[in-house]
Design a protein that fits this description.
Length: 241
């Protein structure tokens, strides 16, 4: 890999790719979660200042390729990356992990945003949120008849009607089954992230007959090359240009 690559990450797939990059490449993290200490590539933490700031960074750092391995719901980051690459005339590649597909026994309630989530969980008492940090901004709005369990990457102070669990996948079916039972979960709230690392919650919800409130994926920009798995990306990045 001779051309200098900027890898936009924060997901498990991005970390797997970053572990194959040499010291001339840059792995960019938004700043949430833990910064890995076992990488040979440079690690940059923090934003770029929108598409214009990223375009300046690409020119100043002599980046020859941007690879977007951010979360499927990081729509703004992906949009900024696509715009910056167009402005800087740098190739834009992306990992586009396939979404999960509902199985015949699944009870998925599709919603498009936080308002839809709140409406969908109104009949339930013990929701499990697996949306990342977003529910933390709404802890003061927990209805008195509900108790939330929120799983995200970072520890957060507790709340009278919410339990916050800091944990990072992969999660097993046995672990999810134990959590659902111990916390009396009656509905799961999820993003359709795809991949195997966090899919066990859907299998356990299916097994226990629990509904899943599923947030729809946002539209993402197209890329010159798109990949469905980290391994496909690693193979392609071995000879990127």
């Amino acid at each position: 890999m001779t051309a200098r690559i900027l890898l936009l990450g924060g997901t498990g797939d991005a970390l797997a790719i970053a572990r194959t990059l040499g010291p001339q490449h840059v792995y960019s993290l938004a700043g949430l979660g833990r910064v890995p200490a076992d990488l040979a590539c440079a690690v940059r933490v923090g934003g770029f200042g929108g598409a214009e700031g990223l375009a300046r960074f690409l020119a100043d750092a002599n980046i020859a390729l941007v690879f977007d391995a951010t979360h499927p719901y990081a729509a703004q980051i992906s949009a900024n990356a696509a715009r910056a690459c167009m402005a800087a005339r740098v190739p834009y590649w992306a990992l586009r992990r396939a979404p999960w597909q509902a199985q015949p026994a699944d009870d998925w309630r599709m919603v498009s945003g936080w308002t839809g989530v709140v409406e969908a969980i109104a009949p339930f008492a013990r929701p499990l949120f697996t949306l990342g940090r977003e529910p933390l901004a709404h802890l003061n709005d927990v209805p008195p008849q509900q108790h939330w369990t929120i799983r995200c990457l970072e520890a957060h102070p507790g709340h009278a009607r919410a339990r916050i669990i800091d944990a990072r996948g992969p999660f097993t079916a046995d672990g999810e089954r134990a959590l659902f039972t111990e916390a009396c979960i009656d509905v799961v709230v999820s993003k359709n992230s795809g991949g195997a690392a966090t899919e066990a919650k859907l299998a356990v919800a299916r097994e226990m007959g629990l509904p899943v409130v599923m947030m729809q994926r946002p539209p993402l920009p197209g890329a010159q090359r798109e990949f469905a798995s980290a391994q496909e990306a690693i193979d392609a990045l071995a000879h990127p240009i």
